[in-house]
Design brief:
Blueprint: H1 8-38, E1 49-50, E2 53-54, E3 66-72, E4 75-84, E5 93-100, E6 108-110, E7 123-127, E8 130-134, E9 137-139, E10 145-147, E11 151-155, E12 160-163, E13 175-179, E14 183-187, E15 190-191, E16 194-195, E17 199-203, E18 208-212, E19 224-228, E20 231-235, E21 238-241, E22 249-252, E23 256-262, E24 265-274, E25 286-290, E26 296-300, E27 322-329, E28 334-345, E29 352-354, E30 357-361, E31 374-377
Parallel strand pairs: 1-28
Antiparallel strand pairs: 2-31, 3-4, 4-5, 5-6, 7-8, 8-11, 9-10, 11-12, 13-14, 14-17, 15-16, 17-18, 19-20, 20-23, 21-22, 23-24, 25-26, 26-27, 27-28, 29-30, 30-31
Length: about 375
């Protein structure tokens, strides 16, 4: 029936009836749109368990050890330097060094890292077939700790250490990453009595130091991160909280930053604050960058309770390791939860990239037990 027309009271009643039907529908429609617009976006599918594959055990348990890898035509050789042995006392700081060659069935003990004392929280980075070992701290019988300036280049072919120019500002528990097969950045870290915001830049060819753009966040130690191309991702660690009414406190820092290196002047880094990663802040995670799938920086393990070198928290409570793996996608500019390790782990200096796999070397497991394990795992990156 075309063109039905209503008039007067009848039309008013019809209009009222239609409004009673359609206005709620319109209201529901707009509510749906608003919820869709502002609802949190899930950043990952339901994460599953990431199964680790055991590699040969280290000759003895070691934690807080500097780790690195060198790739060659024969495969990847893994390295561990310095660290803390299983007694977890001041006298258990170690100068030991180990290597696991491609397809090897056992680790080989290397000459000890030079120095009269063992060291904790050193950093190691491989550049051009050498491993560069930076700093760390010593522990005296009275419990006093000292940041060291030492830099050594380990030559695997000669099985020798070459002393290099010491750090201008000695740091430990710093983040070390290599750039451009020549340069190494040391980001923030602890220096004797407090954290520094310095980004110290070492030139492996010139054997010289310069200062890059400082780290913009709260200075931290025990932080983690990685580099892909010209992009640095740095997260977490421990900052110092100081007030006039109480003793200084060691406090987890839930800050993440992205740094863009200027290829024309590598001393210049443009820093940007990132959204926080999934979960709470972590201390001494294992992390590394990989160019796979558009570039990722992967973070694994760590503890949500900052602790002294023996695994006891600064708050007096034992620290516990976690199993979480997450990553930052440079292509997506998003954090993603990537799963759960099949065992919890903490007290790492870095995550080693070995081809398409990631490797955890040593560290602490449940109940702050120092581990001799070396664990390899793969990830299906989104």
């Amino acid at each position: 029936m075309p063109g039905t027309v209503c008039h007067g009271a009848a039309c008013s009643k019809l209009t009222a009836a239609l409004l009673q039907v359609y206005v709620p529908m319109i209201r529901i429609f707009w509510q749906f749109l608003l919820l869709a617009a502002f609802a949190p976006i899930a950043i990952a599918a339901e994460p599953g368990t990431v199964t680790t594959r055991p590699l040969p055990d280290l000759p003895r348990p070691i934690s807080n050890n500097a780790v690195a890898a060198i790739a060659s035509g024969a495969g990847v050789t893994l390295f561990s330097f310095l660290g803390l042995e299983s007694g977890k006392r001041w006298s258990d700081t170690s100068s030991a060094a180990f290597a696991l060659g491609p397809e090897a069935s056992a680790w080989v003990e290397l000459p000890a890292v030079p120095g009269s004392e063992g060291r904790l929280a050193a950093s190691a980075v491989a550049v051009a077939d050498r491993v560069y070992i930076f700093g760390g701290y010593t522990v005296a019988e009275d419990g006093s700790e000292k940041s060291t300036p030492y830099v050594h280049a380990y030559d695997p072919d000669q099985r020798t250490y070459i002393a290099r120019e010491p750090m201008p500002v000695p740091v430990d528990d710093s983040l070390a990453v290599a750039y451009g097969e020549r340069l190494i950045y040391l980001v923030s870290g602890w220096h004797d009595h407090g954290n520094v915001n310095l980004v110290q830049l070492y030139d492996t060819v010139a054997d010289s130091w310069s200062q890059a753009t400082p780290y913009p966040g709260a200075p931290v130690f025990g932080h983690a991160g990685g580099i892909v191309g010209t992009t640095l991702i740095v997260c977490d660690g421990v900052a110092i909280h100081i007030s006039a009414t109480e003793r200084r406190r060691y406090q987890s820092s839930a800050e993440c930053y992205r740094g863009e290196i200027d290829p024309q002047d590598p001393r210049r880094i443009d820093w940007y604050r990132l959204a926080s990663h999934p979960g709470v802040a972590r201390y001494r995670m294992a992390a590394a960058g990989t160019s796979s799938d558009g570039g990722w920086v992967i973070f694994a393990g760590g503890s949500d309770n900052p602790y002294n070198y023996n695994g006891t928290g600064y708050d007096g409570r034992p620290a516990n390791p976690v199993r979480t793996i997450f990553g930052y996608s440079l292509a997506l500019r998003q954090w993603r939860e990537l799963g759960q390790l099949d065992q919890a782990t903490m007290d790492h200096r870095a995550l080693v990239v070995a081809g398409t796999k990631f490797v955890l070397i040593g560290g602490m497991r449940e109940n702050q037990q120092v581990s001799a394990s070396a664990l390899s795992f793969g990830l299906a990156l989104p």
